[in-house]
Design a protein that fits this description.
single chain, 0% strand, mainly alpha, globular
Length: 307
């Protein structure tokens, strides 16, 4: 990877992460009026449809689907259905700022998953230190809440579900990065989200019942924005994961933007959401961990003559 390609990758990773950071507020708004899995299913089905018109040489690219259908279904199941079933269930149980910060620890789990499943993406001392600091941040954020551990409290369960989401997301990134058939990224993102969205919606109806509304304008606004950001961010991310020389752990480092912006937006927009000292300390720990990962990746690039 040359210097220009490296810088372009960083820019696109920041754009994708910034888009994802806005998701937490939209999700909390949508879940006021809809069940988690039903809302997620509609969101990702629409996201997948949004991508289809912008796929270049669509007829030619669609020819890759029959040979790659199994991979598309697998990615749809893991990266959309399973990950977001866990994610929406967890986010529905925790405040927006807390959810944003726990999800922000996702790159730390991606580092661990990549170490075991990507031969060229092994743990280093710097990565081990960053993982330890980041996990400490998650613990501070979670256990520092007054109600965690109380009888009948669901916040702790929500945090556990969000951590499980991080692990599943790490596996999903590895599956996309190891794609041997080189499915066009936009085809993979579009049809995997359509398939995963249908799965989420059907399971949601089975376990949550069907909610037909009526829904207010802010529900449709949140749904439209979430559908767009997923279409854009996931397409960008899949494209980056398929680039030669990209490491899953280093790419995921740029998601450190997500907990910071996500928490701030929650504090500004959502009622009853406000910063606390514990939340800020936890955010700082997670941020420090991810910055260490980023510095390690930049040092490696300098050694390779790209800095």
């Amino acid at each position: 990877m040359n210097k220009n390609s490296f810088n372009n990758t960083i820019f696109l990773a920041i754009i994708a992460s910034t888009l994802w950071a806005t998701a937490f507020v939209g999700i909390k708004i949508g879940l006021r009026y809809s069940a988690p899995l039903q809302f997620a299913g509609i969101r990702f089905f629409l996201s997948g449809l949004m991508i289809i018109p912008i796929i270049p040489n669509l007829r030619e690219k669609l020819k890759a689907i029959p040979d790659s259908f199994g991979k598309i279904v697998l990615v749809g199941f893991i990266q959309t259905f399973l990950q977001y079933a866990v994610f929406y269930s967890g986010v529905n149980l925790v405040p927006g700022a807390l959810g944003a910060m726990v999800i922000g620890a996702g790159p730390l789990f991606a580092v661990l998953v990549a170490h075991f499943f990507m031969p060229n993406d092994r743990l280093t001392l710097n990565r081990i230190v960053s993982v330890a600091i980041g996990l400490a941040g998650v613990v501070v954020i979670s256990l520092g809440r007054n109600k965690i551990g109380g009888a009948g409290d669901m916040v702790g369960l929500g945090v556990i579900l969000l951590i499980a989401n991080n692990i599943i997301a790490g596996f999903g990134n590895v599956i996309v990065a190891r794609d041997g058939k080189k499915i066009p990224p936009l085809v993979l993102s579009s049809f995997s989200m359509i398939i995963g969205g249908i799965m989420l919606f059907l399971v949601g109806i089975a376990f949550e019942g069907y909610r037909s509304g009526p829904f207010p304008a802010e529900y449709f606004g949140a749904l439209a924005w979430l559908s767009f950001l997923s279409a854009a961010a996931i397409s960008i991310w899949y494209t980056l994961l398929k680039r030669p020389g990209i490491k899953v752990s280093e790419l995921n480092m740029w998601k450190f933007i997500i907990p910071v912006l996500g928490a701030v937006l929650s504090w500004i927009i959502l009622p009853n959401e406000h910063p606390t000292l514990v939340a800020i300390v936890g955010m700082m720990l997670v941020g420090v961990a991810l910055v260490i990962l980023g510095l390690n990746g930049k040092i490696e690039k300098w050694r390779n003559g790209l800095g």
